[in-house]
From TrEMBL:
Catalytic reaction annotation: 4-amino-2-methyl-5-(phosphooxymethyl)pyrimidine + ATP = 4-amino-2-methyl-5-(diphosphooxymethyl)pyrimidine + ADP; 4-amino-5-hydroxymethyl-2-methylpyrimidine + ATP = 4-amino-2-methyl-5-(phosphooxymethyl)pyrimidine + ADP + H(+)
InterPro entries per UniProt: HMP/HMP-P_kinase_dom (IPR004399), PM/HMP-P_kinase-1 (IPR013749), Ribokinase-like (IPR029056)
Keywords: ATP-binding, Kinase, Nucleotide-binding, Thiamine biosynthesis, Transferase
Family: Belongs to the ThiD family.
Pathway entry: Cofactor biosynthesis; thiamine diphosphate biosynthesis; 4-amino-2-methyl-5-diphosphomethylpyrimidine from 5-amino-1-(5-phospho-D-ribosyl)imidazole: step 3/3; Cofactor biosynthesis; thiamine diphosphate biosynthesis; 4-amino-2-methyl-5-diphosphomethylpyrimidine from 5-amino-1-(5-phospho-D-ribosyl)imidazole: step 2/3
Protein name: Hydroxymethylpyrimidine/phosphomethylpyrimidine kinase
Length: 257
């Protein structure tokens, strides 16, 4: 059995964050563990409140897992503030964590800032160099690079620039493109495009969390990077196709067991 750890925020409505990550891990046949960085009070309409977890407690959770259990991969999602980020980076270095996937979560689809603006530089400096893969969407890639906007033509240059920040590879997700959901992978040498149509789906809560967790799981299962991204994207495609209405707003993607 492969043991996967998610370090992320809790979503009380179960569609994104820690809950999406653990559902993805179960669906893909790996054992899921969690370090919670923040508790969000949210539902399908949006985020009402956030309580950040103190850095000592983040450290204690990571230590408790690593000192007892072999960890084969780590997905990092919502990290909230500079203190939490610095702690996560120090702890993962200390424990020599493998297969780290960094999803630079910034703003929820409903518009809530899940990462403090002043934490962006810390995330770039501390977490990106630890990443086997970093998975920004287009607005996140823009924010990391300090640019206004990004279209499909600009994605290859942006991926190279993000690679210079230290991750082994970069996956820019094109879900915000107008005509298609084309993603670009850059491994430091080659570009690979993963092309897909936009699905006509209103219920998309938890898509980013699901993709990055599926990537971490497939890497831990031993797939090489290209196959990993392909398989993770296929899993997400199915999960979006079967997403369903829940509550009064944007429903969650559906996980397959
Ligand atoms: N809540 C938490 C805890 C998250 O980690 C995320 C995204 O990573 C979201 C909410 C946002 O989910 P979405 O933008 O898919 O609605």
């Amino acid at each position: 059995m492969k043991n996967l750890l998610t370090i992320a925020g809790s979503d009380s409505s179960g569609g994104a964050g820690i809950q999406a990550d653990l559902k993805t891990f179960s669906a893909l046949g790996v054992y899921g563990m969690s370090v919670i960085t923040a508790v969000t009070a949210q539902n399908t309409l949006g985020v009402d409140e956030v309580a950040e977890i103190g850095r000592d407690m983040v450290k204690a959770q990571i230590d408790a897992v690593f000192k007892d259990i072999p960890v084969h991969g780590v997905k990092i999602g919502m990290v909230s503030n500079p203190e939490i980020i610095t702690q996560i980076a120090a702890s993962l270095k200390e424990w020599k964590a493998p297969n780290i996937v960094v999803d630079p979560v910034m703003i929820s689809k409903s518009g809530y800032a899940l990462l403090k603006p002043e934490a962006v530089e810390t995330l770039k400096r501390e977490l990106l160099p630890l990443a086997r893969v970093v998975t920004p969407n287009l607005p996140e890639a823009c924010c990391l690079l300090g640019i206004e906007a990004l279209d499909e033509e600009g994605m290859e240059f942006a991926a190279q620039e993000l690679h210079r920040l230290g991750p082994e590879s970069v996956l820019i997700k094109g879900g915000h493109l107008k005509d298609a959901a084309n993603d670009l992978l850059f491994d430091g040498e080659d570009f690979s495009w993963f092309k897909a149509p936009h699905l006509n789906q209103k219920h998309t809560h938890g898509t980013g969390c699901t993709l990055s967790s599926a990537i971490a799981a497939h890497l831990a299962l031993g797939y090489e990077l290209q196959t990993t991204v392909q398989k993770a994207k296929e899993y997400l495609f199915g999960a979006i196709e079967q997403a369903f209405p829940l509550g009064h707003g944007v429903g969650p993607v559906h996980h397959f067991y």
